[in-house]
Amino acid sequence: MGYHENYLVWANEADLDASLKGEVAALANDAEAQEEAFAVPMAFGTAGMRGVIGAGINRMNIYTVRQATEGLANFMDTLPAETKAKGVAISFDSRYMSQEFGQEAASVLGAHGIPSFLFDALRPTPELSFAVRHLGTYAGIMITASHNPKQYNGYKIYGPDGGQMPPEESDKITEYVRNVDDIFHIKTLDVHELRAKKLLTLIGEDVDEAYYAAVAGVSINKDLINKVGRDMSLIYTPLHGTGRIPAQMVLRNAGFEHFQLVAKQAVADPEFATVPFPNPEFPQAFDMAIELGKKSQADVLIATDPDADRLGTAVWTGKDYQLLSGNQIASLLLHYILEARKQAGTLPSNGAVVKSIVSTELATAIAKDYGVDMINVETGFKFIGDQIKHYEETGEHEFLFGFEESYGYLIKPFVRDKDAIQSTVLLAEVAAYYKSLGMTLYDGIQALYKKYGYFAEKTVGVDFPGVHGPAEMAALMTKFREEQPADFAGVKIEEVEDYKAQTTKHADGTTTPIDMPVSDVLKYILADGTWIAIRPSGTEPKVKFYVGTSADTKDAADKKLADFEAALTAFRTE
């Protein structure tokens, strides 16, 4: 059916939820808005489904949440009875409709006889991942739109290992979701039936305490924290999200006593009233923390996004606060971990670090220096989780650290997704380490550049809003594939890695296979070691362009970065 026909189905649905009736009626004479909401159904990307809250098949609402959950439940119905009986853990963040969507998911699962373990209040994404493993459930559902603006919400599915459901399983679930023809009459059970039939268990402090105990193992040097960290001045902001209670708890448990909350941003506010985007990648997210920090010249500012899986930081330089990039934070954490393990004599001979293919090569240089393998995976933290699972099954490597350039890090694998709560504790310890040397985290990254070379990276997102956005994004990817550039900024392209075709094309015309899952990603390797990658976002209507380069000096690296960005933009827009 076309978008208008889909709209009429909703407009004529007698039992349509009262909260959506007015919105549907308001779209009666707005063809553009109808097309946006009703032309295509929501799709699962690298992090589940995510979209604007509202009425329609391309919106987050109780019906699309029920549909997604019905798909999961139908898939679980095909599993052995004992596997299905393990149930599903469910958590939610501070966004509009998050708690309601979590309860809706439980009600659909219960109608299939699948037990749910629902958190009694908002919890971070990493704790949901932990809960799946801790409780031994078959799956997990996290209701969150992570760092997106307030209009959005989302739905992530996690597998038995606590990682986001890998492509094979998520593709099967998507098939089941699409086979749900009547989204208005999916069977549900109300909360009283769920409780009476023991199909809903509320979870809370019992899981919290187990998670905090696991996070306590992230700290490496307790003496350092006691001597330096205890008096170090920290500012923390959860950006109106789930991090407030767990971040305070783990910092205090680790021995960091002198920290303050940004009070206005400690409120779990679905409006995210104090920030244009609740994303620690954006400098504006630190405005209030900087204002508070300047009053005491606090050593370190830390911000986590609403579901507390991403972390950003800024450090006092003596004059102002300097923000660090996700790549810089990851490099500092990695270097500290490897040096500490080396000094303690616990650095394994088969150690491995796992990062996405669009993350900094500074980390590769650091890992090589310590005799540790660097494993590159496709973008999406689920692929890092897959590697950890593989290492546990085969013993091939011991996992030491994982990260993505987009401000996501994992230190200990009792969680299988980005974990800003773990990262908060370790980053504070790394800051204490450098403070003990009379240095800041900013000084620390400069020291790494001096040793390993000056690395510079940049990510640029080009938005493609609207229902036609996916087609426009696909056309742009086709342009780069069919109009193959020979160079960027005068530097020859040596290799083109096409993760959709799963081949690497070399300068001499030969090709070699890529042994990774199929993904719509292109990556160019240039003659000077620079790399450029292009991929459509899995969760937002945008194409992301990544550039990574290096040089002997910061100025030279920054100039190369600017030149390549300009060349990339020129080719894209010509």
UniProtKB/TrEMBL annotation:
<dbReference type="InterPro" id="IPR036900">
    <property type="entry name" value="A-D-PHexomutase_C_sf"/>
</dbReference>
<keyword id="KW-0413">Isomerase</keyword>
<keyword id="KW-0597">Phosphoprotein</keyword>
<comment type="pathway">
    <text>Lipid metabolism.</text>
</comment>
<comment type="similarity">
    <text>Belongs to the phosphohexose mutase family.</text>
</comment>
<dbReference type="Pfam" id="PF00408">
    <property type="entry name" value="PGM_PMM_IV"/>
</dbReference>
<dbReference type="InterPro" id="IPR005844">
    <property type="entry name" value="A-D-PHexomutase_a/b/a-I"/>
</dbReference>
<feature type="domain" description="Alpha-D-phosphohexomutase alpha/beta/alpha">
    <location>
        <begin position="326"/>
        <end position="452"/>
    </location>
</feature>
<keyword id="KW-0119">Carbohydrate metabolism</keyword>
<dbReference type="InterPro" id="IPR005846">
    <property type="entry name" value="A-D-PHexomutase_a/b/a-III"/>
</dbReference>
<dbReference type="Pfam" id="PF02880">
    <property type="entry name" value="PGM_PMM_III"/>
</dbReference>
<feature type="domain" description="Alpha-D-phosphohexomutase C-terminal">
    <location>
        <begin position="481"/>
        <end position="557"/>
    </location>
</feature>
<dbReference type="GO" id="GO:0006166">
    <property type="term" value="P:purine ribonucleoside salvage"/>
</dbReference>
<keyword id="KW-0479">Metal-binding</keyword>
<dbReference type="GO" id="GO:0000287">
    <property type="term" value="F:magnesium ion binding"/>
</dbReference>
<dbReference type="Pfam" id="PF02878">
    <property type="entry name" value="PGM_PMM_I"/>
</dbReference>
<feature type="domain" description="Alpha-D-phosphohexomutase alpha/beta/alpha">
    <location>
        <begin position="42"/>
        <end position="180"/>
    </location>
</feature>
<dbReference type="InterPro" id="IPR005845">
    <property type="entry name" value="A-D-PHexomutase_a/b/a-II"/>
</dbReference>
<comment type="pathway">
    <text>Glycolipid metabolism; diglucosyl-diacylglycerol biosynthesis.</text>
</comment>
<dbReference type="InterPro" id="IPR005841">
    <property type="entry name" value="Alpha-D-phosphohexomutase_SF"/>
</dbReference>
<keyword id="KW-0313">Glucose metabolism</keyword>
<keyword id="KW-0460">Magnesium</keyword>
<feature type="domain" description="Alpha-D-phosphohexomutase alpha/beta/alpha">
    <location>
        <begin position="227"/>
        <end position="314"/>
    </location>
</feature>
<dbReference type="InterPro" id="IPR016055">
    <property type="entry name" value="A-D-PHexomutase_a/b/a-I/II/III"/>
</dbReference>
<protein>
    <recommendedName>
        <fullName>Phosphoglucomutase</fullName>
        <ecNumber>5.4.2.2</ecNumber>
    </recommendedName>
</protein>
<dbReference type="GO" id="GO:0004614">
    <property type="term" value="F:phosphoglucomutase activity"/>
</dbReference>
<dbReference type="GO" id="GO:0008973">
    <property type="term" value="F:phosphopentomutase activity"/>
</dbReference>
<dbReference type="GO" id="GO:0006006">
    <property type="term" value="P:glucose metabolic process"/>
</dbReference>
<dbReference type="Pfam" id="PF02879">
    <property type="entry name" value="PGM_PMM_II"/>
</dbReference>
<dbReference type="InterPro" id="IPR016066">
    <property type="entry name" value="A-D-PHexomutase_CS"/>
</dbReference>
<dbReference type="InterPro" id="IPR005843">
    <property type="entry name" value="A-D-PHexomutase_C"/>
</dbReference>
